[in-house]
Structure formats: structure tokens, C-alpha cells
Amino acid sequence: MTRKLIKIKDLIPGMYVDEVNCSLKERDRIGETRNFLVIGKHEIDRLAALGVQELYINLGKGLDHFDEDEERKKGNQAIAELARLKNAQNAQKPKALADELYDARMLLSKARSELENAIANLRAGKKIEIVPFLPLLLEIYQSVSDNKDAIVTVCRKKKKGGYALEHSVSHCALMMAFGQTLEMDKTAVLEVGLGGLFHDIGKIRIADAILDKPGKLTAEELTIVRQHPSWGGEFVKNVGGFPEKALAVVMEHHERLDGTGYPNQLKEHEISLFGQMASIVDVYDACISIRAYGAAADPCLVIRQLFAGAGKQFHQELVQQFIKTIGIFPVGTLARLESNKLAIVIRQTKSLTQPVVRIVYDLKHNCFMPPEDVDLSRPRVKMDKVVGHEAPEKWNIDPFRFISPELASL
């Protein structure tokens, strides 16, 4: 276990408190002083108000503390380069949504190919090399930073028959988007993305007949499947320099807050922040994907499922933060408006319930209408709002045909 002593002023959400540095006598007064994940600022304020001055944090289960002065010295060049890129981007004409989605799809397709090669090498008895993945992870990081909606949307559209690889690539991208929502530093975001990419690597030990079985698994088959996080951990532990945060994603993405997960039935604070993030992402992406034993679920219904499990199987505040990442009505949702029109969500705004939509259908006259893009969060259009989501099949509308014909064809 890697332990570090920090000042209370340096404690931030996402850190895992191993122990508050206080006397035995003070513990009764303070209350919870060991083994807990800091999720909100209110927890930090409470400890400060109780007079806590120093704490030990566990770097294997939560975020690290960085010396700002030192990081500033190291990062001046990187910051200057990022500023240059941002200025160049601002000088360019904004891309159309279809172009942004195309770029994101090409990037994730490249990630799929790299992962496929790594798995082939592993099957051939070679070790996984993570260095070749670093430029790719940096590209995904930049894509998420520039337009999170594009890459999160592409994660919804997977090729039939390619679930295993595409799920891992989507897990990577969603973990990085989630990490940015939680305001993790760049290194941590890259590490959880790496973990997402390899989170299911242990499944290469499982026969295709089990992985692709359309029906219910037997008890024996289920026992085999539930070993894949441990097997994945064995694989990546042999990789030089594989980060602890990424390892936690691989080994803990099926653990649950109430102890009903696997492989180790960890509970609550026994699961790292990164494992808790990975479990939410894994359920979401698996449910919205076509698998051997079931069709893809509506993302809005999956969000309800996550809400239902919040505070039980999943950390409540982390679920809320993940929903900030993808939106209550994710891009591609067919939404019903109060004005009795159907619209497709094309971009999120700061208001989770008031996205940018593309209006395409008039329910009053039962006909299509010329597409019109409307930002429902703008004051001038606040008289209209989303009142619910609709099944595209009911209206014979493919939302992606109106935002990206290429994605619609997948």
C-alpha cells in the first residue's frame, strides 16, 4: 500500500483517506477517521471544522496529491502547447456534428485495431506492451476534451458481432470522459482510460462458446466467467509500469457497493474510486450494446437502472456525476417536446434537462418537418422543453439518420 501524509487544505474529492492523523482520544469526537473515499467538498469542510490538520491518503485506492509549484514547473511547456492548439482550434470554423462524429468513430476504430493486435500478441505468448497505446490514449483524451458528446455518442453505435473489442474501447473512452467530469488530473484520466481498454482482457481465457452463448449460462459457466477480472489482473501485473489505477479498473469493475459483485465480493470503501467508476461505466455500456443474449437497451432506461442501483450497488454521487457525463437524455435520444414535436438530442448543455435538439416531426399534424436545431437552455426558447423520450421504432424514426448517416448504417 502506498501511503502519503497530506494537509487538510490539500484534500480533494476522489482521494481515499487511509487514516486521519489524530490521537485515539480525538477519534470519538471526529467520527469516521479511517478507510473512506472522499466524494464531496462537504466531507472536507466537516473534517476541517472538526480541527483535522493532516491525513494519510491511500494512493492505490484514490487520487494522488501533487505539489502545485512543482507541477507548474514541469508543465509549463505542455500548457503552452495546449494553449497553442486551443488557439488554432478557435481560429478554425466549428465542425459540423456529423464530422465530429466521423472523427470520433475513426479514432475508436484505430483503438479497436490496436487492442486487437495486443490480444493477438498475448494469445501468442507475448506480453502486453502499453507504450504503443500512450499516443492513442492522448488522442482520445484530446477528443473527449474538445467534444465529449461526439465520442460518447459513437460509443453507442457498435458493429454487430464485434461486442468484445468495441465494448473495451467504449469503456476506455467513457472512463476518460467520466474522469474529466470528476475533474481528475490528466495523468489519472489517462490511467483509468488504459484500465478501461484492458478491463476485460481476462476473457481471453474463456471459450467463445461461453462468451457467445445466446441463452442463460449454467452455474459452472457462470463460475468461469466470474474469474475474468482476476485473470485480467494476472495479465496486466506482468506488464511493466501498468498503473495502480488501471489495475483497479481491471480487477474491480464487477464489484458492487453492497458486496454482491465478483470476484472478491468487496464492499463499500474496499472498492477503489476507480473500481467504482468502472462498475458504473461497465453496466451502462454493456446494456446499450447488442450482445449474444440480448438486444441493446435504450440509454434512458439504463440511466433509470443506474439510478435505481445508486446507494445500493453503485455509489450515489458517482452515478450522478456519470449522468452529467452522458446526459439524462444522451445524444441520439428521440425526445418528445412540450410543444408536441419530436426532436433528436444532438448536444448536451450545462442544463441536463435542456439539451440542444434537432426538431424533425410534428405530432399535431403527424408529419415530418424541416429539421430545426434549437438550444432549449437559451432563455428565448425556454417555453419549450423535453417532457420525455420515445422509442424510435414506434415512430419509424432512426435518430442517427438525422445526425450521421454513417452511424445510422451500423
Question: How are the secondary structure elements laid out?
Answer:
Elements: E1 3-7, E2 16-20, H1 24-30, E3 34-37, H2 41-49, E4 54-58, H3 68-91, H4 97-123, H5 134-146, H6 148-154, H7 163-181, H8 186-197, H9 208-211, H10 219-225, H11 228-237, H12 244-252, H13 273-287, H14 299-309, H15 316-326, E5 334-337, E6 341-347, E7 356-362, E8 367-375, E9 386-389, H16 392-395, H17 405-408
Antiparallel strand pairs: 1-4, 2-3, 2-4, 5-6, 5-9, 6-7, 7-8
Q: How would you describe this structure to a colleague?
A:
The chain is an alpha+beta fold. It has three domains: 1-89, no CATH class; 93-326, Hypothetical protein af1432, CATH 1.10.3210; 334-408, no CATH class. It contains 17 helices and nine strands. Strands 8-7-6-5-9 form a five-stranded antiparallel sheet, with no helix packed on it. The protein has a four-stranded antiparallel sheet with strand order 1-4-2-3, with no helix packed on it. Strand 7 and strand 8 (367-375) form a beta hairpin. Helix 11 (228-237) runs antiparallel to helix 12 and helix 13 packs antiparallel against helix 14 (299-309). The chain is globular and about 75 Å long.
